[in-house]
Amino acid sequence: MKVWPGNPYPLGATWDGSGVNFALFSENATGVELCLFDRPNQGRETTRVRMTEQTTQVWHVYLPEARPGQFYGYRVHGPYNPAEGHRFNPAKLLLDPYAKSIAGSIKWSDALFGYTIGHPDRDLSKDERDSADGIPKCVVVDPAFSWGQDAPPRTPWHQTLIYEMHVRGFTVRHSKVPKELRGTYAALTHPAIIDYLRSLGITAVELMPIHQFVADKFLVDRGITNYWGYNSIGFFAPESSYASPGTLGQQLAEFKTMVKTLHREGIEVIVDVVYNHTGEGNHLGPTLCFRGIDNAAYYRLVADDRRYYMDYTGCGNTLNMTHPRTLQLIMDSLRYWVLEMHVDGFRFDLASTLARELHSVDRLGAFFDIIHQDPVLSQVKLIAEPWDLGEGGYQVGNFPVLWAEWNAEYRDTIRRFWKGDDGSLGGLAFRLTGSSDLYDRGGRRPYASINFVTAHDGFTLADLVCYNDKHNAANGEDNRDGHNGNLSWNCGVEGPTDNPEILALRRRQQRNFLATLILSQGVPMLLAGDEIGRTQRGNNNAYCQDNEISWIDWKLDPQRRDLLEFTRLLMRLFHQHPVLRRRKFFQGRTIRGSEVKDLAWFRPDGKEMSDEDWNNPSVHCLGLRLAGDAIEDTDARGNRILDDTLLILLNAHYEPLSFVLPAHRRKVRWEVVFDTRDQKPTRRRRLIRGGQPYELEARSLVLLRLPQHDIRENGDNEFHFRAAGFEFVEDSLKTDSVVTSRPNSSGLLSLRNRL
Question: In a 10 Å sphere around its CB, with 0-12 CB exposed, 13-18 middle and 19+ buried, how is residue 371 labelled?
Answer without folding.
Answer: buried
